[in-house]
Amino acid sequence: MYRKLRPDSTIATIERLKHRIEERFPGSGLSRVCSELCAVANASRSRAEWIARPNYTLRVIVGLVVACGMLGLGYSISVMEISLRKIDAGELVQISDAAMNDVVLIGAAILFLVTAEIRIKRSRALVALHELRSIAHVIDMHQLTKDPSRLQRDVILTPSSPKSEMSAYELTRYLNYCSEMLSLTGKVAALYAQSLRDTVVLSAVNEVESLTTGLSRKIWQKIVILHRLDPD
User: Fold this and answer.
1) Per the count of CB atoms within 10 A, which of 14, 35, 110, 209 is most buried?
2) What domain count does the chain have?
3) Residue 66 backbone dihedrals phi, psi, to 5 degrees
4) The pTM is what?
């Protein structure tokens, strides 16, 4: 029961986080990003379910194509008139070489057809994972200018310095929300890993999780600084 991520629970967690951000920072860009993450999570649930389902239509078509190809090959061999007595060693080598090339090409064609389903699903999963990777960078952009050092009394700001009207507590909550969003982005990516056991997809999911973990680590460094500046 607790060995797989449940898409519904993941989406519900993102929706709760969206409401929390809207209540704490109404009309903020971060709340809109969380709304976008929620929409992507809902789309990911449908995509992951589609990826997990066997595509029987494609499998039947591939099976028919392979069967027709093998029947055609068998018929071609059956109508060939080859007499081993009239073939010398050189011609036998040439025929064997041509036959081996045909076998390799036919095998490659069959492999291409048989793996068509997983390649289609892999392509769709990679597109979705790229979308999640982009959202992670968008979240990072929102926390980029939230510098705890600006809360110090002796800080000197320039005209181009980002404006910050948040208190230490509000800034801590803001950064916590960013960290939670990054963590949930990695969890949405993990839905594709449990729907499709493909090494390319697994590698892409690991990249997204490594990215979100690394970005979250930077955020927590800021939170630690905030706690030192304002222990209360």
Assistant:
1) 14
2) 1
3) -65, -45
4) 0.80
Residue type, 9: S
Greatest pairwise CA separation for the chain in angstroms: 101
| 120/138 Cα distance (integer angstroms) | 28
- Domain extent, residue 137, equals 1-232
CB atoms < 10 A from the CB of 110, how many?
15
**What is the structure's pLDDT at 150?**
72
